Amino acid sequence: MKEYELVIIGGGPAGLAAAVAAFDAGIKDILILERDHSLGGILNQCIHNGFGLHTFKEELTGPEYAARFTDQVLERGIEYKLNTMVMDISPEKMVCAMNSEDGMFMIPAKAVILAMGCRERSRGALNIPGYRPAGIFSAGTAQRLVNMEGQMPGKRVVILGSGDIGLIMARRMTLEGAKVLVVAELMPYSGGLKRNIVQCLDDFDIPLKLSHTVTDIEGRERVEAVTIAKVGADRRPIPGTEIRYECDTLLLSCGLIPENELSQNIGVELSPVTSGPIVNDGLETNIPGVFACGNVLHVHDLVDYVSEEAAAAGRNAASFIQNGESTESDKIELCPEGGVRYTVPVYLRPGKMNDTVTVRFRVGEVFKNSSIVTYFDDDEVMRRKKQIMAPGEMEQVILKKSDILAKPGMKKITIRVEEG
């Protein structure tokens, strides 16, 4: 295969936005590799609205949002290969892929952008007791069955986990005639956006039971009943709190995990908190010329932020191809503390960063009437009060290059949550 300047792995919203931004920054020799039969990624099955309010200033469905970026890719003549699985990437940025037309092939690249997205946590990772009958689905699988294949997973439904996909499927199953009996959530707070709790559960009188989990699944051939119980502070079921629901379907919406097997094989350093790559302000990993963006980097709440982040990765990859490897040796570490679970990026390069850098993060619990406070070493430089912060919604702090350069010798930037 010919050499490409830039190879993007993944043709979902992140990969498409990165390709468009890199092309507009002057890189014309781009190849997108997508394992599905169409561009657009997971958005093709997300037929609900709520996408695009930040990016396009209008409300779109998932397929409409994906189509906007797909059209931009086609207008620019950016090359892509569908039904193509990437098998391996070497640290020298040699991409090994395969499909039914070309067989197995190697593509040398000057830069690579990782945009593989994420996957759902499976039942096997949850240790739920009971048999393995039919009728247990991940929420994303159920979404694909209903929205793309016209198949109903079941008629009486229990949902474990209050992630956004689970909340949206509670509404979707109800609209298609099923009875959603309950949504149970292990944590004392929901893992989804507040608007989805209101629009998908409250509007349809679907109960949300926090600090509850599934303790038993009945049925040999097909799910017949599911038992949930309240959990204590140690997240163990409390005897005597069990509630049994007769149902034929259990949907699991228990978190998303970045698809980083390829990243790990190359030697990309991964965060123990996000399971995504550790990156600098240019969204570059520890391997020069390998960038990451979107849900493979950390799981986002809004696709608009995925596109924004991916566009930055595309522009930075273009700069790497045009100008070569950065020789910046000074690094400033970003330190999450006091309720902030992680930050993306993990460190900044003062001399190489853009005029502004958006630092995104999630908090570890629900905070009310608190502030996001930023420190340069031990000096407070920014404080923003928030009425409420929850793990389901991403927060951000925007740092200015001019402010950082005004404090030479700085060792770290701390972002923390403080009361009041």
Q: What secondary-structure arrangement, pairings included, does this model have?
A:
Blueprint: E1 4-9, H1 13-24, E2 30-33, H2 62-75, E3 79-81, E4 85-89, E5 94-99, E6 103-114, E7 118-120, E8 136-138, H3 139-147, E9 156-160, H4 164-175, E10 179-185, H5 194-201, E11 208-210, E12 212-218, E13 225-230, E14 243-246, E15 249-252, E16 256-258, H6 261-266, E17 290-292, H7 303-323, E18 332-337, E19 347-348, E20 356-361, E21 367-376, E22 379-389, E23 395-400, H8 401-405, E24 412-419
Parallel strand pairs: 1-2, 1-6, 2-3, 6-17, 8-15, 9-10, 9-15, 10-11, 18-24
Antiparallel strand pairs: 4-5, 5-6, 7-16, 12-13, 13-14, 18-19, 20-23, 21-22, 21-24
Radius of gyration: 22 Å
Compute the average pLDDT: 94
Give the CA-CA distance, first to last residue.
Answer: 59 Å
What's the number of helices?
8
Given helix and strand content, the structural type is alpha/beta
- Please summarize the sheet with the most strands: 7 strands, mixed
Report the principal-axis shape: globular
CATH superfamily of the largest domain: FAD/NAD(P)-binding domain
Query: What is the count of distinct domains?
Result: 3
- Helix percent reads 10-25%
Molecular structure report:
By secondary structure, this protein is of the alpha/beta class. The protein folds into three domains: 189 residues, FAD/NAD(P)-binding domain (3-Layer(bba) Sandwich); 133 residues, FAD/NAD(P)-binding domain; 94 residues, Immunoglobulin-like. It is 21% helix and 32% strand. Strand 4 and strand 5 form a beta hairpin. Helix 3 packs parallel to helix 4 and helix 4 runs parallel beside helix 5. The radius of gyration is 22 Å and the shape is globular. The model has no long low-confidence stretch (mean pLDDT 94).
